[in-house]
């Protein structure tokens, strides 16, 4: 029998199925810049579908993670402080 293995990265078609055309466009635009579907969708949940705001969030998130901060802690703090990198 065929077994389906679960992955952390569902196929894009499955992820995009539940999105509106404008949300899909936003995701595709940002994923095209090299971000993961998972990361973009998380950012969109927090920032809406404004491409600039989502990119700002992803950029700040990546920069803080690159400095050695825990990704989950970064997400919580960005949410708490409305994306303020200084805080």
Describe this structure in words.
This protein is mainly α and 87 residues long. 61% of the residues lie in helices and 0% in strands. It has helices at residues 12-16, 21-31, 37-47, 51-66, 71-80. Helix 2 crosses helix 3 (37-47) and helix 4 packs across helix 5 (71-80). The mean pLDDT is 82. InterPro entries: UBA (IPR015940), UBA-like_sf (IPR009060), UBAP1 (IPR038870), UBAP1_C (IPR042575). This is UBA domain-containing protein. Residues 20-61 form the UBA domain.
SSE series: HHHHH
* Sheet with the most strands, sense and barrel status: none
Q: Strand percentage, roughly?
A: under 5%
End-to-end separation: 52 Å
Number of helices: 5
Rounded Rg: 14 Å
Indicate the percent of residues in helices: 55-70%
Give the beta-strand count.
0
Low-confidence runs:
none
The overall pLDDT average reads 82
User: How would you describe the shape?
Assistant: elongated
Q: Structural class of the helices, strands and pairings?
A: mainly alpha
What kind of oligomer do you see? Answer: single chain
Protein name: UBA domain-containing protein
Organism: Cirrhinus mrigala (Mrigala)
Summarize it.
With 87 residues, this protein is mainly alpha-helical. It has helices spanning 12-16, 21-31, 37-47, 51-66, 71-80.
Question: Topology, pairings included?
Answer:
Blueprint: H1 12-16, H2 21-31, H3 37-47, H4 51-66, H5 71-80
Helix pairs in contact: 2-3, 3-4, 4-5
Protein name: UBA domain-containing protein
Domain UBA: 20-61
InterPro entries: UBA, UBA-like_sf, UBAP1, UBAP1_C
